[in-house]
Amino acid sequence: MSYVFTERPQDSELWFEAFDAKYRSKRSKTRLSCEDWESVLGDCDAVSDLPCAAFSEELIEACPEAKVIFNRQKQLRSVVPERDEYCLIRPFHVTFCFGQIPRPSLPIPKLFRMGKRMFGDVFDSSFPDNGIHVHRSHSEIIKRLVDGDRLLVLNVKEGWALLYSSLGLEIAKDAGPFPRVVEDKAVVDRVLVK
């Protein structure tokens, strides 16, 4: 999600169209075509997290040769806090309340509206109430749709070794530490300070 916010905020309308097609369409055909995905994903070689995870089935169907990396969560409860706001939305509320938006070039209201729509559609309007169920259901769908050779199940905290090995590569000498770009602070820093 931070990629949409930081690198391609101009694509938020395309994501609105994708969410409308999947979750709100009254038409029988709601799948996006391969060309639609090309326009939404642009120059991406890989995708992760929301909003792309909301379209896993469609992306797996549109890209049958793609490998899928499934991040195994050891403690799902820590990802979905009980009866609390979603951790990535909270910093935005605080920022808006104090009027300190360090990156005024971002279309914050449009992106915030997209985030709200995304979490409303995917989690039936309540991440705290439905997050664990949605995550487990999503996990089962991925495991059912992806063949053994195309699916890598790992915990990202394990670092580079399993990922590189599954791709048939040696760990690059300049690989450095495993990136931590989707943790709360890293996302807020990238979105608001970039």
Number of DSSP helical runs? 10
Nearest-integer average pLDDT: 70
Strand order of the largest sheet: 1-2
Oligomer: single chain
Task: Kindly name the structural category.
Answer: mainly alpha
For this structure, the CATH topology is Rossmann fold
Strand content: under 5%
Please identify which CATH superfamily we are dealing with.
P-loop containing nucleotide triphosphate hydrolases
How many beta strands in the DSSP annotation?
2
The radius of gyration is: 17 Å
Low-confidence stretches: 80-104
How many domains is the backbone divided into?
A: 1
Please render the helix and strand layout as text:
Layout: H1 2-6, H2 12-24, H3 34-41, H4 56-62, E1 68-71, H5 76-79, H6 90-98, H7 108-122, H8 127-145, E2 151-154, H9 160-166, H10 184-193
Helix pairs in contact: 2-7
What does this structure look like?
It holds the Pfam family Sulfotransfer_4. InterPro entries: P-loop_NTPase (IPR027417), Sulfotransfer_4 (IPR040632). A two-stranded parallel sheet has the order 1-2. It has one domain: P-loop containing nucleotide triphosphate hydrolases (Rossmann fold), CATH 3.40.50.300. The protein has helices spanning 2-6, 12-24, 34-41, 56-62, 76-79, 90-98, 108-122, 127-145, 160-166, 184-193; strands at 68-71, 151-154. Helix content is 50%, strand content 4%. By secondary structure, it is mainly alpha-helical. α2 (12-24) runs parallel beside α7. Residues 80-104 have low confidence and may be disordered.
